[in-house]
Specification:
37% helix, alpha+beta, Pemi-like Protein 1, Chain: D
Length: 82
Amino acid sequence: MITVTVGKRGQITLPRAIRKRAGIQDGDRIAVSLEGDRIVMHLLGKTLLELRGSIPVTGAQDFDAIRQRVLRSRAERAADEG
């Protein structure tokens, strides 16, 4: 177990070994919750805005048509399960 000290403003520094093992990098976001008597940290993934442009596409995208296909697919799946 590694211990850290809480600073005046409530800040802590995550030790390098923990950051490395968890794959935490500069700018990553972490959610903090209280579960009973434990403080739990969850590494958050990238937001959609941060992922923008990470997948190469060719040509223009019709997002309305894509949304309609997704909605139809979900409706069909729900109907099959019900």
